[in-house]
Write a structure and sequence with these properties.
Aminopeptidase, globular, single chain, 13-stranded mixed sheet, disordered C terminus, alpha+beta, 338 residues
């Protein structure tokens, strides 16, 4: 039986409800896959969303949300949306791990080629760019002349007791955490105002380094307020009720993602605020029965030194591109002007 590709509209309540039911049943997703998150990402980036789902009969076999960007006569397709600072999107298969290899290969190829065929026929892009974190089999893209570039992230397994988790960290991380917890620093989950504070602190850090930062306060706060409770968790550190640092964590059924924050605090403090923040995100995730803490990125040596102190393992992501080189830079310029 062939794979049929259906297209869902995040603005249609019935489509959104059905799509979200597939997202909720698939372990290889995160809250940014939800229809309301897709809609917000499209509004923030002035793109048109298309939520592609593959079906084998009545069984959903894969999900692939994409964003159509038009500039004059040119069309590009992205997942996640261009320069959206979104958490992971891209294609994801459903329950393929339960299949024998021959069936898994066939199902994956038919789903991917069905999506690519729909994109080509319906949108005719001159450029495509997907970032895949939930798909290990890149062969269908290679067979269809897409370019594949590996990327990397660090993941901490949340297992054992709290003390066993802490003991796996480097000695300086353990000391920093224990010293900070004895120093009167308060770590807590904040609110929508704290979401904005964290984003603004990251923006200040980027601007001080002369680097662009496209994530808007309104988008981050809208995600916090629109997604189900607990999907976006603003962890903040306060000293005498004053905000000194924070991390925005995204939470799925199995994983917490270090989405934004964790920059060097401006306040003159004598402890490692970020060590303490990351520890609380991990510790609370362990208490809630989550399996992983994705530190989101392992490609910058100077930052890797910090992340590696938590004894993570390395995982691979993939950037998949096809078409006119440089169009993504045109989109970047457009985003800067906005």
């Amino acid at each position: 039986m062939s794979i049929e590709i259906s297209v869902f509209d995040p603005g249609d309540p019935d489509d959104a409800e059905e799509w979200n039911s597939y997202v909720e049943r698939n372990a290889n997703t995160n809250p940014f896959f939800r229809a309301e998150a897709i809609r917000l990402q499209a509004l923030d980036t002035d793109t048109t969303p298309h939520m592609l789902a593959g079906f084998k009969g009545q069984e959903v076999v894969g999900l692939f949300p994409v964003f159509e960007y038009r500039k004059g006569p040119l069309t590009a397709v992205f997942s996640p949306a261009p320069f959206s600072w979104s958490c992971y999107l891209g294609p994801t298969m459903v329950n393929v791990d339960k299949l024998k290899q021959r069936k898994a290969d066939r199902r994956t190829r038919r789903f991917v080629e069905g999506c690519l065929g729909w994109i080509e026929e319906s949108l005719s892009p001159v450029y495509t760019k997907f970032v895949a974190a939930y798909a290990d089999d890149m062969r269908p893209f290679v067979w269809n002349d897409y370019q594949i570039e590996p990327g990397y992230t660090y993941v901490v397994d949340l297992e054992g007791t709290e003390e066993e988790l802490l003991k796996r960290f480097s000695s300086d991380a353990r000391s920093n955490i224990r010293n900070a917890e004895e120093g009167g620093y308060v770590i807590e989950e904040g609110d929508g105002d704290d979401v904005v504070r964290i984003v603004e602190r990251v923006r200040e850090r980027y601007e001080s380094q002369g680097r662009p930062f496209h994530l808007s306060d309104d988008f981050a706060r809208s995600m916090y307020e629109t997604l189900p409770e607990g999907s976006i968790r603003p962890y903040v550190c306060r000293v005498d009720d004053e905000f000194v640092g924070g991390i925005l964590a995204v939470e799925s059924d199995t994983t917490r993602y270090r989405w934004q924050g964790g920059v060097k605090p401006d306040a003159d403090v004598d402890v490692s605020i970020n060590d303490l923040l990351d520890w609380h995100v991990m510790r609370d995730g362990l208490r809630e029965g989550l399996e992983r803490y994705d530190l989101v990125g392992a490609g910058v040596p100077s930052i890797n030194r910090y992340k590696a102190k938590f004894n993570p393992r390395l995982e691979t992501t993939y950037t998949i591109t096809s078409g006119a080189f440089g169009l993504d830079l045109l989109v970047d310029q457009y985003r800067k002007m906005r």
